[in-house]
Amino acid sequence: MMAAGQAAALGVQVLLLERNSRPGRKLMITGKGRCNVTNACTLLNDLMDFIPSNGRFLYSAFSRMMPYDVIDFFEALGVPMKIERGNRVFPESDKAVDVVDALDKFCKQNGVKRYEERAVALLQDDGHVTGVKCESGNIYHADAVIVATGGMSYPLTGSTGDGYTLAKQAGHTIVDPKPSLVPLETQEKWVKEAQGLALKNVRISVYDNEKFCEIYSDFGEMLFTHFGVSGPIILSASAHLSEITQDRYQLFIDLKPALSHEQLDARILRDFAEMPNKALANALAKLLPKSLIPVVVRLSGIPSDLRVNQITRDDRQALGALIKELPLTITKKRPIEEAIITAGGVNVSQVSPKTMESKLLKGLYFAGEVLDVDAYTGGFNLQIAFATGNLAGTSAASE
Questions:
Q1: Under DSSP, is residue 199 helix (H, G, I), strand (E, B) or coil?
Q2: I want to staple 182 with a disulfide (CB 3.0 to 4.6 A). Which of 223, 241, 323, 339 is the partner?
Q3: Residue 215 CB partners (closer than 8 Å, separation 6+)
Q4: 210-244 residue pLDDT tens
């Protein structure tokens, strides 16, 4: 929609082919239905720090449309924005539908026509794209074609890899699509006991046992599931995990990051002093979420019915260490269908970063997740979508 509206704003005729009855279905579910449209980074280099895959390819696109340009764009269309923790930008209404409606308005006011069609083949002549053929059999001729079909995540919204098929027809190489920003499965089955528990203000660190080093750490929110862990900081961590082999990656959760080991030990001592005759399992109610208490007690090896006035100093400090580094072993990522973003896609070495035009077929352009670019959670992937869409639309209008 960004690409179509931008091209039409420059005075050319634009036809938007959308396989769904309504555009923007994936936008409707982003940010838990609130739509995290961008991240309010003010410096280009700061933005690049959050894009681990082919960030340099996006310099030109971002130079034309930075996060505050995205904010201005939507506010000019009547959608006020707000900035929350982590510089995440949301509509003030907290409704993703307002963002979708604004993009729809942008297209309509610039004269974009939209047909409910699914493009399945590119039309080509002498090294130049000449249009597309649709699943219905209809053929549409054009001087330029922009492929902005998304990746393969959330296929029910229409992202089923159609763009890769079209790109291959032009000779493009597709970097193997893989899930990125995706929940993680764990070896430990106790996560089922904490299923549904959301933790705020915790810190995680991921350790690579093959490289003998920490590869990622983050602070924020996470969630326990029946298979493992999810939530914003877990999704971001997933982008750093390459080939997952047995026992390679360990995840450590600091349940009390605001306290040092010494401060936590003092806190535990105070709690124990208030209830010296209580069993350990009953003495942690002020310190830990209810569903985690039996898990932590069991992992500590301390009998759950032991009175706290009988717990040794060493056992108490070991308990504190466990609370500061609750361990989990990552076994695999969830399927690509559950990923927020697809890593991989059209090889960016075959696309001009200054125009988003194919280097292999003149008049063919790409934008968004179909390209081999992806970023961490926090609004960065939609920033990529809007910026590359804006550049592709501008460039295609000059054909």
A1: strand
A2: 339
A3: 206, 207, 208, 240
A4: 999 999 999 999 999 999 999 989 998 998 888 89
Report the C-alpha gap between 316 and 296 in whole angstroms: 12
Q: Can you tell me the distance from the alpha carbon of 199 to that of 39, in angstroms, rounded to the nearest whole number?
A: 23
CA distances from 333 to 212, 230, 240, 242 (A): 21, 10, 11, 10
pLDDT in tens, 34-87: 999 999 998 998 899 899 889 999 999 999 999 999 999 999 999 999 999 889
120 Cα distance to chain centroid = 27
Bridge partners, 213 (sequence order): 208
- What type of residue is 25? R
| E runs forming strands in the chain | 15-18, 38-39, 81-84, 88-91, 113-116, 119-125, 128-134, 139-141, 145-147, 174-180, 184-186, 198-208, 213-224, 228-230, 249-254, 326-333, 341-346, 364-366
Which amino acid appears at position 2 of this protein? Answer: M
Q: Two tokens at 346?
A: 């059209």
Return the closest-CA partner of residue 203 out of 24, 74, 326. Answer: 326
How far is it, in rounded angstroms, from Cα 139 to Cα 302?
A: 71
Question: 379: which 2 tokens?
Answer: 């609004």
Query: Model pTM?
Result: 0.83
Query: What are the chain's domains?
Result: 2-178+337-396 (3.50.50.60), 183-333 (1.10.8.100)
CA distance 266 to 224: 28
Give the separation between CA 54 and CA 51, rounded to whole angstroms.
Answer: 7
Residue that has been written with the tokens 């973003």 in this structure:
341
Asked if 9 contacts 107 with a C-beta cutoff of 8 angstroms, the reply is: no
